[in-house]
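Appendix B. One record, verbatim.
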Amino acid sequence: MPAKTVVALACMVVTLGLLSEAAVYKVGDSAGWTTIANVDYKLWASTKTFHIGDTVLFEYNPQFHNVMRVTHAMYRSCNNSNPISTFTTGNDSVTLTNHGHHFFFCGVPGHCMAGQKLDLNVINTVSSTPLTDPPVSSSSPPSTTIPAAGFPGPSPSHAASLPTVAAAVVSLFVSLVFANFAS
């Protein structure tokens, strides 16, 4: 096998390994998104380390629940009058594209006050300046990317991050260019 093919394959394996580090978290684990099981969503979120690129999955019965993404103030007061976005399929995936706090609750009357609310924090491994994405429409499909609510995250961890993946992609590109010039 020519050397440039070996180099390209090795770089692709490294890149794929880094990309596969994004995690999928089912909110509430086996109980899902509900009021029946008395899930402590604050405790659930505190046991996870969320990173940019991770996905949170809300599984619930859409006849009895929904998911609303809200601001911090709306989260604190359980105010569902003007959510950032609303999900209603019962199997909603949200990909986390920004660091900082992300606030969700069930908009069915009484559910948020009963504890069906989630504040998850995506750690910042790059800088302390929040990233921005365009706002998410409430008519979004079940798989949606959600920007952070503009709340700063905690100190960085040593986990793989989007810049690490970007570096791997650049490394692959440079290796391919080098392999083409070397032949």
